[in-house]
Write a structure and sequence with these properties.
Layout lengths: L1 E5 L5 H8 L5 E6 L12 E4 L5 H14 L4 E4 L3 H6 L1 H6 L3 E2 L5 H8 L1 H9 L10 E3 L2 H12 L5 E5 L9 E3 L16 E2 L1 H8 L8 E5 L5 E7 L6 E7 L5 E3 L3 H14 L5 E8 L2 E8 L6 H8 L3 H9 L13 E3 L19
Parallel strand pairs: 1-2, 1-4, 2-3, 4-5, 8-9
Antiparallel strand pairs: 6-10, 7-8, 7-10, 11-12, 11-14, 12-13, 13-16, 14-15
Helix pairs in contact: 1-11, 5-6
Length: 340
């Protein structure tokens, strides 16, 4: 079987090694020719930078030229889902959910929160959709009347690229004693947004101060695979199966109709979990969950796609899991036809 991963983040190295079975050929591509993901692939190609409207044609052509049987998209997931039938007609199976309406809802955080409010309002945090500088000021005032800090990001974002915490220590010498991270002062935020046209609205909400939870999920009739990882300290995660997190994820999977792997993120505040977002793909840390629960989510997803539903048992013991970084050499691969 020839399986293509396009433009995945670096930890897809582990996803590929978990998924790959005997006889499988993994094809990888990225606009970064030195991506470490290429070390896990049998074939590696450098992708051109293309506008979204041209990307589906590129993917269809790539699948045909490289005899792809299964496509595991990350880049362009939205437009690929909208054109899923074109891939089917080429004999290419997509390892992703392809309901455009549900994907659009989950991709936009404001739409997602409104949908979650219909059945689990207690998990939805206070938030404001910001479409102007005045909206931003009013939202900040309302949030800081009840909470210590506010934060914001684009309503449609991936990987927290636009995420910022408003921290006024950043505007004076106090900032020297605090790691800047993704922090910005209120005054600097206003100055930046005064030049922004708000063509992409922002979502502003309280900065929640508790532990983060990342739940790796795969729907299964009779009881889904749901593996919640609680961020401890440093690189340590605690995998444990708290009823409120597991029950919420189970209900979400049933209502959404998602059948491929996804990741649900929460953050606690004053002992209560709040939903942050849902990613309709495997997470960057799914390999940690797989190790802790002794279950192979990437391979199970591939087996389902091919019409198989193997029996599995999840090890539900509470366990701590971590990871280490190992040096690797990149940039010296000799794949045939390495540039598209």
């Amino acid at each position: 079987m020839r399986i293509w991963f396009n433009h995945w983040f670096s930890t897809a190295y582990h996803i590929i090694n978990l998924m790959k079975g005997e006889g499988d050929i993994i094809i990888g591509s990225s606009s970064n020719p030195n991506s470490v993901v290429g070390l896990a692939c049998d074939e590696w190609y450098t992708e051109p930078e293309l506008p979204e409207e041209e990307y589906v044609s590129f993917c269809l052509d790539f699948c045909q030229r490289h005899n792809v049987n299964v496509f595991v998209p990350r880049r362009g997931m939205g437009v690929i889902a909208e054109n899923a039938r074109l891939f089917e007609t080429k004999g290419v199976k997509l390892l992703m959910d392809t309901d455009p309406q549900m994907l659009d809802t989950l991709r936009n955080k404001e739409k997602a929160y409104k949908w979650f409010e219909s059945f689990a309002p207690e998990y939805v945090p206070l938030r404001f959709e910001v479409r102007s500088l005045e909206d931003f000021r009013q939202a900040y005032k309302a949030i800081t009347a009840e909470y210590e800090r506010a934060c914001f990001k684009f309503a449609a974002d991936e990987g927290a690229v636009s995420f910022r915490v408003i921290d006024n220590f950043m505007s004076d010498a106090g900032g020297l004693y605090k790691a800047p991270g993704m922090k910005i002062s209120y005054e600097n935020a206003q100055a930046i947004l005064s030049d922004y046209d708000f063509s992409k609205p922002l979502l502003m909400m309280p900065y929640l101060t508790g532990v983060e939870v990342s739940a790796d999920c795969l729907y299964k009739e009779g009881g889904s695979i749901i593996i919640p990882r609680y961020k401890s300290q440093g690189r340590i995660y605690t995998v444990k199966y708290e009823d409120e997190i597991v029950s919420f994820c189970e209900e979400f999977l049933k209502r959404s109709g998602l059948k491929m792997p996804c990741n649900v993120q929460f953050k606690y505040h004053e002992g209560k979990p709040y939903l942050l977002e849902v990613n309709t793909r495997m997470s960057g840390g799914v390999q940690l969950s797989c190790l802790a629960a002794d279950v192979n989510i990437p391979r199970l997803a591939l087996e389902r796609l091919m019409g198989n539903e193997p029996e599995i048992t999840v090890d539900r013991r509470e366990r701590r899991v971590s990871y280490i970084e190992s040096p690797v050499i990149v940039g010296e691969r000799e794949f045939a036809g390495a540039t598209i």
